[in-house]
Write a structure and sequence with these properties.
Low-confidence stretches: none
Helix content: 25-40%
Strand order of the largest sheet: 1-4-3-2-5-6
Bound molecules: pantoate
Structural class: alpha/beta
Strand content: 15-25%
CATH class of the largest domain: Alpha Beta
CATH superfamily of the largest domain: HUPs
CATH architecture of the largest domain: 3-Layer(aba) Sandwich
Radius of gyration: 19 Å
Number of strands: 9
Largest sheet: 6 strands, parallel
Order of helices and strands: EHEHEHEHHHEHEHHHEEE
Distance between the termini: 39 Å
Number of helices: 10
Length: about 280
Amino acid sequence: MKTVKTVDEVRAQVREWRKQGLSVGLVPTMGYLHEGHASLIKASVKDNDRTVVSVFVNPMQFGPTEDLESYPRDINRDAALAEDCGADIIFNPEPSEMYHKGFSSFVDMTVLTQELCGLSRPVHFRGVCTVVTKLFNIVKPDRAYFGKKDAQQLAIIKHMVDDLNMDLTIVGCPLIREEDGLAKSSRNTYLSADERKAALVLSRSLELGKEMIRNGEKSCAAVIAAMKELIEKEPLAKIDYVKIVDCDTMQQIEELDRPALAAMAVYIGKTRLIDNFFTEDI
Ligand code: PAF
């Protein structure tokens, strides 16, 4: 498996595959790959003749006080994992390759970006939409794979592809958890041993919310209040948000009368973790 650094190299490889009539899948990542990414790569390898994994810590989607500098990076480890999963090429550009001097075009979205992580991270989704559009234009994949852990990101990308007539299929893949319930995330590496234990409060509170819904609770306020109460009992946890939104619009709802997403962002110490469930999956 090759690791390439330039847009020209990845384009030349994809052109070669296209000449042979092969289909191409793209798995966009920021690296420090874990089992969640592995499941995306394996899904792409199953559906497509060739798979490109991009590894790029995209500066544009980090706010000025966020963890761009400390975000974990290990391209050799990523390459080994991607190869084990059957990927054909890693695209690992430098920021200067993606954003040349004078770069000034952006892809932005209203409505879906205004809730949840979009509220706490105002520049985040503009950075995500811009880099994902660039990756789609560079690789021109038939399909691209995103995890349901970043549920708002997945909804935004599907909407963007539809709005802008992008010619590919977006495939959403299940959220992958550690055995004890913690959602897999590259940011879990920031957690100390005590924080790692405390972080279980996210999945525990989601389980409580699911249980209430299974038992017939229809009021979003009641479910949210119970989840927040549980999280607030954990001294190392600080809630950013706990919300229930419509799956398509990402706008808050009051009644559980349609497919909904229960989503949360919680700081454990300094680490901001996200987790969620779709009511359709419970
Ligand atoms: O989900 C991520 O890792 C990133 O937001 C993405 C989609 C690779 C864009 O940088």
